[in-house]
Task: structure prediction
Amino acid sequence: MSRKTINLCVVLLAAIFITFSVMAEEAEEAAEHYRLGKTYYEEGRLGNALSETEKALELEPKKAESYFLLGQIYAAMGKHEEEIEAYEKAVKYEKKRAEFHLALGEAYFHVGEYKESVKPFKKAIKYDSGMARAYMALGRAYFALRDFDSALEEMEKAIEMDKENADWHKTLGSAYFAAGKYDEAAREYRHALEIDPRLAEVQMLIGRIHFEKKEYEKAAGEYKKAVEADPDNPLIHYHLSQAYRQLGMFDEAKREEELSKRPLRRD
Result:
């Protein structure tokens, strides 16, 4: 090997070494900006979080994790178009991260783009078939699109994975109610109450089922239980007034109607 060739090899190796050194330094600097961005986000210092995360992306413009954090920051700021754009880039650079697809779907759902949310929810399930939250999210999207059969199917899968989630039982109950399946709706509402007896709204929803079935005395009984749990909720008083009216109890109905006109109070 000639001296000229040897010198050339030395120069190339030095250039490669310098390049990798610079890349390593930039990666380390980007990681520090990302760490600061995440810390600021968790502390609620959103302006600082945004600044640090953008600096991280300037150094590593294809870092999916940083785009995911950026989406979370924009969501907290209420900038949902930017949130969606950030999540789209996160799934572009890391296609198999289920939580990234879930976040993108939830962002679309939040702005009322229910049809657009279906695809990322399905991808979240594809890459993590055990993600119960993704099945429920997909079910809610189908529910919003009034595809009740698909909504029920996905919600039931979610609850099979997490049977102790009261809110999910309530959501499934509402899907059954919308589909006209009152017995199944009542079953799910009662499951929710078994998990969390404080859910006055769920007690009210059971009353609505009886009301729809023209079982007005039973409806009134459920509404009264709901009133006991949440006496300041005007909507419950309104429904109770309607049950009393159907039972011919007009004085009681008038009293509940007056109570229903009071503003909702929450401590």
In short: The chain has 14 helices and no strands. The domain at 198-267 is CATH 1.25.40.10 (Serine Threonine Protein Phosphatase 5, Tetratricopeptide repeat). Confidence is low (pLDDT under 50) at residues 13-23. The radius of gyration is 27 Å.
